[in-house]
Backbone:
């Protein structure tokens, strides 16, 4: 099984970022389970987990971090 790391919050725990990793863990688990169950029928299962998107609110959050460059 080939796994790409789709988002920086998909695997590690990130401070003050509770809902995103939980949802991404769930989607990774669902994708793996569907892939295992559908592989025998030749069905491939993929998922898309977008990473950080720089919006106005994300920019404000990053600027408020102790070290925005980090």
Residues:
């Amino acid at each position: 099984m080939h796994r790409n790391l789709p988002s920086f919050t998909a695997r590690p725990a990130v401070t003050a970022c509770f809902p995103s990793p939980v949802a991404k863990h769930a989607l990774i688990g669902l994708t793996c389970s569907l892939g295992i169950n559908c592989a025998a029928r030749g069905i491939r299962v993929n998922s898309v987990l977008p990473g950080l998107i720089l919006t106005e609110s994300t920019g404000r959050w990053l600027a408020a971090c102790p070290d925005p460059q980090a």
About this structure: The two ends are 32 Å apart (CA to CA).
